[in-house]
Amino acid sequence: MSKETDRFLAPAGQKIRLKDYSTHYDGDTGKKVGKATLTAIKEKLSDYQETLYAENSHSVLIIFQAMDAAGKDSAIAHVMSGLNPQGCEVHSFKTPNASEYAHDFLWRHYIALPQRGKIGIHNRSHYENVLVCKVHPEYILNERIPGYDEVKKIDKNFWKARYESIRNFEQQLTENGTVILKFFLYVSEEEQKIRFLDRINDATKNWKFSSGDIAERALWKDYMAAYEDAITETSTENAPWYIIPADKKWFARLTISQILEETFKGMKLKYPVLPEEEMAKLEEYKRKLMGED
Questions:
Q1: What is the CATH code for 8-290?
Q2: Can you name one GO molecular function term for this protein (predicted)?
Q3: How do the domains of the chain map onto residue ranges?
Q4: Model's pTM, two decimal places?
Q5: Any residues with CB less than 8 A from the CB of 291 and at least 6 apart, and which?
Q6: Nearest partner of 123 among 85, 82, 93, 89, judged by Cα
Q7: Contact (CB, 8 A) for 79 and 86
């Protein structure tokens, strides 16, 4: 049975065209009902998190990718606000440092993976290496990969191999118990302009704006092409991409929370059941404690 959230799924093995997806779709629930639903789902997510920790067999990796001002930070803050911080880690990846460049492109992301029983959130991720780096292939030269000492050598075969590395990386993770969810917050160019102007006009938001944001905005078409390629090449049955309409932040948050709820429900998590002898000891301990009165 298909779900409402299936409309946001990027089908595995199919060519993705972002023009087939909406940036402004907001369903039929309305903002007020949507916010109330989000609050209810957050309580359920907290329960699922506790069961995930107790079962200690799986981990969950949640990846957020988007253009600037699409709402990644606020989505993480709102949707995950009900989770226990002890079982959830957020990693925001910036430009690689010297140590990170001294390793392969997946290394810094691998060491940031969540351990069993925990939830990991990657705000930007290993996908920057086929998004930003594809728009700016000169960045690849910083990796000092043998045979790639000139931009002109970074060809289709290079990107094909990099997509394959990502698919293999994620397959290895899923085979070992990590559930992967990848969200592309799809904001329109018009809405980004509005949010940039808001950051400029509001003194409390000036710190969020960078002159580099305008330079990257000028490359919008290149970025959309890079996202289409990346999603097409790496949306798989075990590690799917969801293309989330992000022009209306409340709806993006609601949709992400619904997908998380559906995913946790499908995992069929259970609290561990103690062996009979251990259960018998519990009854003995209970009698002793009751006898202390």
A1: 3.40.50.300
A2: polyphosphate kinase activity
A3: 8-290
A4: 0.94
A5: none
A6: 93
A7: no
